[in-house]
Amino acid sequence: MNNIFTIDLEEWFHANYQDDIADTNKPYEVRVLDNTYKLLKHFEENNTKATFFVLGYVAKKHKKLIMDIHSSGHEIASHGTNHYLVYKQTKEEFKEDVYTSKALLEDIIQKRIKGYRAPSWSITNESLWALDILQEMGFVYDSSIFPIKTFLYGIKDAPRFIYRPIINGKEGSIFEIPPSTFKVFGKTMGFSGGFYLRALPFWVIKILTNRVNKHMQNQKEREAFNSNPVIFYLHPREIDKNQPKLKLKPLEYMIHYLNINSCERKLQKILSTYKCTSIEEYYEF
Fold it and tell me: Model confidence at 22, in pLDDT bands (50, 70, 90)?
């Protein structure tokens, strides 16, 4: 079966551990171009299509990159404009941030933008109002709710597989597509992207991917989708062992940079083992 690969397209300095990590008005080194073209090469060599959640900050500066991704057959989706945490924005600020990104991307590729992913999975219990705004703006799906709770993101016990969230007291028209997780001793854990993917050996990722693919959903979901794809996700910086380093606290530094040197090799193993496609193509949105 197919699985799904997604990229959060942002620069090496986009992080949300603290409010003052980076001043995006400064002329930081550009590394997203080389890293993304390297990803595109890996995808082409393995006949892979992916969903790129593009940050407006990157799209505004590198329109040709976005066109090249689109012309290579990958899906373009929104990652907002400025990489701000949703739960630290007002509703008006969030709507402006997402509208600006969506309009910019649609102008570049001349195609409707159907998907959104919040920076750092920041649609939480405190910011579920964002789903109502995304639905009003015509998005088909969101991929922002991590079904675990950490210091930065997540909703404990949120559904682990694709579902329609409850919005204003009724089932919404928008789909929620969470990142893939597994259960161990009753606890939900991530494995398919970011820190989790970098921390785990490939053989563990393979076992967990096969387990998720075979997982039986409830009857309604089985009738609609038949199977469970794994939602893999990475950032371009995660295959860049020579990137500049942010000044982070020890725990944050470990989360951000653990096993960066080996991540590209792990990516190659995943792509050569599993056929992956975009969210749009998998679900025929």
Answer: confident
Q: What crossing angle do the helices spanning 32-45 and 260-273 adopt, rounded to 10°? A: 30
Contact present, 101 and 79 (Cβ < 8 Å)? yes
What are the strands, taking DSSP E only, across the chain? 3-9, 51-54, 75-78, 115-116, 141-142, 166-167, 170-171, 175-176, 181-184, 187-190, 231-234, 276-277
Decide: helix, strand or coil at residue 261: helix
pLDDT of 226 over the 90 cut: no
Angle at 261 between CA 193 and CA 120, to 5 degrees: 30
- What are the domain boundaries of the chain? 3-283
Residue 181 zone, left/alpha/beta (φ > 0; ψ -120 to 50; rest): beta
The C-alpha atoms of residue 285 and residue 142 are separated, in whole angstroms, by 12
Give CA–CA dist 183/160, Å, rounded: 10
Look up the pTM and report it.
Answer: 0.95
CATH 3.20.20.370 for domain 3-283, yes or no, is yes
